[in-house]
Write a structure and sequence with these properties.
By secondary structure, this protein is α/β, with parallel strands linked by helices. It folds into two domains: about 5-115, 2,3-Dihydroxybiphenyl 1,2-Dioxygenase, domain 1 (Roll), CATH 3.10.180.10; about 135-295, 2,3-Dihydroxybiphenyl 1,2-Dioxygenase, domain 1, CATH 3.10.180. Helix content is about 15%, strand content about 35%. The chain is built from five helices and 17 strands. A hairpin with a 2-residue loop joins strand 6 (about 90-95) and strand 7 (about 100-105). The longest helix is centred in the C-terminal third of the chain and has 13 residues, at about 200-215.
């Protein structure tokens, strides 16, 4: 099977594009690398863009870009997708640095944009201020049918299941990172949160100090998730969508071994994929649970 290797970018519609653009550049510290009539492209490093912003009637995540391996066959991947009865669309030069793309919808209507690795841009991390995360890490969604959505990501895109919480919350990986997509069944299809990776605990501390000076308050955190074991903190961006900042996420460095790279905070030794009970430890090993508004 040809599977995607990493998340590349996410596209959002937002009513107040300029305010959201200011948040991504001045607060998160991404770089505005290109501007077109209907889109703004923002980068961390290497890729031309990690975030795409467009104007829309309400805030939502509309598209997610995934990279195949540099030697993977995009034609064969498209046939593989079509064999599942999914309608695909082929696009030439759809975005800067991307020459050829296959797009199709997942089970909740989010567009998947799949392509081979474009030429790396090699721009440095910005030094002008802001949080300056390493990369776009993962995106989480509310879904109406988590079993169906999970099968889609695994069977069509080649994801693997890292963990479940009960039978309603799946954590899926397409790279060594513990999760790139999270799916939680809540009876609705909508964006849950977008997560950016930080370096470590020290970076988390300075990031939270910085965003607080800019008027952003944490919804939940800092803490350490049980599932994935990452440090976390959540806040809302100007358009109301939730941003997570995280560090120290579990890594599956060798799929054949079948366990995550050992860490001193693991409670299992070795830490293998499993189904976690719905207990406080699954959400936060340090104790405090999320406020109700996190799931709205």
């Amino acid at each position: 099977m040809i599977g995607v290797r990493k998340i590349s970018h996410a596209s959002y519609e937002t009513p107040d594009l300029e305010h959201q653009l200011e948040y991504y550049t001045d607060v998160l510290g991404l770089t505005l690398i290109a501007r077109e009539r209907d889109a703004a492209y923002l980068a961390s490093t290497n890729e031309h863009h990690s975030i795409i912003l467009r104007s829309g009637s309400h805030p939502r995540c509309t598209r997610i870009g995934f990279q195949l391996g540099p030697n993977d066959d995009l034609d064969a991947f498209e046939k593989q997708v079509a064999a599942h009865g999914i309608r695909t669309e082929r696009k030439k030069d759809p975005e800067p640095t991307i020459a050829d793309m296959v797009s199709f919808e997942d089970t909740k209507g989010t567009v998947m944009e799949v392509f081979r690795q474009p030429e790396l841009q090699k721009q440095p991390f910005t030094s002008k201020g802001g949080v300056v995360p390493h990369k776009l890490g993962h995106i989480a969604f509310h879904v109406t049918d988590v079993q169906r959505a999970t099968r889609f990501y695994c069977d069509v895109l080649g994801f693997r299941v890292s963990d479940w919480m009960g039978d309603y919350f799946s954590f899926l990986r397409c790279s060594p990172d513990h999760h790139t997509i999270n799916l939680v069944e809540t009876g609705k299809n909508k964006h849950f949160h977008t997560a950016f990776e930080l370096r470590d605990w020290a970076h988390m501390q300075t990031a939270l100090d910085y965003i607080s000076r800019r008027g952003y308050k944490t919804l939940w955190g800092p803490g350490r998730h049980g599932i994935g074991h990452n440090l976390f903190s959540y806040h809302r961006s100007p358009n109301g969508l939730i941003t997570e900042l995280f560090a120290e996420l579990d890594l599956m460095k060798d799929e054949a071994l079948g366990y995550f790279e050992p860490r001193p905070w693991h409670r299992d030794n070795p830490q293998r994929p499993k189904t976690w009970p719905k207990t406080p430890e699954a959400a936060n090993l340090w104790g405090p649970m999320p406020p109700d508004e996190m799931m709205e």
